[in-house]
Amino acid sequence: MTTSEPLFFPAKAGRASEDVALQIEAAILAGRLAPEERLPSEREMQQQFGTGRGAIREALRALKQKGLLDIRKGVKGGAYVCKVGMVSIGESLALFLKQHDVAPSALIEFRESVDQTLVLLAIARGSAEAKRTLVSMAEEFEACLRQDEHDADRIGHLDRDLNLTLAGMAANPIFEWIMQALQRGFSSHDYTLYDTPMYRERTAANWAETARAIAENDPLRARSLIGYHYAMLRSCLNERAAASSSPRVSPDDS
């Protein structure tokens, strides 16, 4: 922010608190207020906005609820700009999806489109060392899935690490941020594959083959394997849905 340009302007009469909130939010989104930066005191903001303390406090409460501000007490208290993290983004995304009842098919379609792009970028931009690491991780994942008594927590952890590693190889921070939010926010229902013995073995082989295709710089094979993974997932979910909707036969009916 330059010293010659004021940060805020007098609020509009009749909806002062709303205008105050909008101006502060705009300053944050434009980068004129940086993460962890302290806002002016309430008294200073009253003078800048030309409004009362009530309107200022109402605006600050609204921005705190949106996750843009942190209200701190004590000697260094005041309103501070929040640094939005992946955890809060993921939690917000999960809550949004639950409230809007997004169909599994929509989530799967989105994840597949992201993964199809990621494998191409990983092949083009990933280093040889990163590709070897991905293969090693995928083989460890395959071995874990092939165990007679699989560890669900370990499987989830390895799956998450594989997806984040693949996103990192794209060398595009936006893809990496999105994948982090996706991993924390919601699942593409892959757990259904891991819970079903037949699909679990196929999924284990598929991840390992996909990693090898990336390491061998084979985009057609890599994309085909991604498509096969999500085709299996759709099939597995359809089978579960059909099984759950089938009428149960009681002993008296037999």
UniProtKB/TrEMBL annotation:
Entries under PROSITE patterns matching the protein: HTH_GNTR (PS50949)
Domain of life the protein comes from: Bacteria
Coiled-coil residue spans: none
Pfam families listed in its UniProt record: FCD (PF07729), GntR (PF00392)
Domain HTH gntR-type residues, every copy: 14-84
GO molecular function terms attached to this record: DNA binding; DNA-binding transcription factor activity
Swiss-Prot/TrEMBL keywords: DNA-binding, Transcription, Transcription regulation
The protein, known as: DNA-binding transcriptional regulator, FadR family
